[in-house]
Amino acid sequence: MNRPQQPVRSELTIDGRRLSYLDFGGAGRPLVALHGHLSEGASFAHLADALGDGWRVIAPDQRGHGDSDRAGAYTRAGYLADLAALLEHLGLGPVPLVGHSLGGINAYHLAAERPGLVSALVNLDAPVDIPHREPGPLAFLARLPYTAPTREELVAACGPVGPMLALGMRPLPGGEGWRLSSHPLDTLDSEGHVRGDHWKQWLGSDCPALLVNGRNSQALPAEQAAAMARRRPGTACVTLEADHFVQLQDPAGVESAVRAFLAGL
């Protein structure tokens, strides 16, 4: 393989705000991968490795996540403007988009609104019909701190989800403590904006698509996944023995499905 062993982190400035992204390199065709809530671009390292030299995976830390700056709002328009700016900055498009959860929603919205930027979609367990209910699935975040003096204290303060969130924790500038990869209140704001009916946007593009559904998904019921594949022409559906976090619970299954889909483009 000719890709560098470590991805290269770069950034661009959008309206005075830093958007950071990882470029896993290589001479293959470009592919952009979009993470979900409570995650970041680095979560696609395993997929980038599995795709080998055939694909150059670029994975941004979406606004308010990872090394990207916090934003004033987490609307769909804001996320899509960031993605369009990134693709323009890199001189890319149309490209395949891979997206998990929030990232999948952003991907199929961009395909509907800017079809010239997107050549194919890989939707990793992102639904199109998200109920408005309180408390939401991420309501527990309101009780979590954003920072703590040490990494150990921050992990402990996050309770049962501490070990999962620890993967993205970062030191604060000047060694003044540690922070989560995203601010809990920002994530709650962002999660509120994904609720509702997204059928129009899911059906609003005609590029090839792959939908990967976890059989035990908390976010995308099997009936909805089947309807998404049935109603959108050119959409294949793969079901894996996993919950919503398909790429964590069955990375080999996700990689096999994505490789097969991309090979057919």
Please provide a brief summary of the model.
This protein has helices at 45-51, 76-90, 102-113, 151-157, 162-165, 184-194, 199-202, 222-231, 246-249, 251-263, and strands spanning 8-14, 17-23, 29-34, 55-60, 95-100, 118-124, 129-130, 147-148, 170-171, 178-179, 196-197, 209-214, 235-240. It has 265 residues and is an alpha/beta fold.
Task: Explain what the structure shows.
33% of the residues lie in helices and 23% in strands. It is α/β, with parallel strands linked by helices and 265 residues long. The chain has a single domain (8-132, 196-263), classed as 3-Layer(aba) Sandwich (Rossmann fold), CATH 3.40.50. It has an eight-stranded mixed sheet, with helices on both faces. A three-stranded antiparallel sheet has the order 8-10-9, with helices on one face. A two-stranded antiparallel sheet has the order 7-11. The radius of gyration is 18 Å and the shape is globular. The model has no long low-confidence stretch (mean pLDDT 96).
Question: Which short descriptors sum up this protein?
Answer:
10 helices; eight-stranded mixed beta sheet; three-stranded antiparallel beta sheet; alpha/beta; Rossmann fold
How does the SSE layout of this entry go?
Blueprint (H helix, E strand, L loop, with lengths): L7 E7 L2 E7 L5 E6 L10 H7 L3 E6 L15 H15 L4 E6 L1 H12 L4 E7 L4 E2 L16 E2 L2 H7 L4 H4 L4 E2 L6 E2 L4 H11 L1 E2 L1 H4 L6 E6 L7 H10 L3 E6 L5 H4 L1 H13 L2
Parallel strand pairs: 3-4, 3-5, 5-6, 6-12, 12-13
Antiparallel strand pairs: 1-2, 2-4, 7-11, 8-10, 9-10
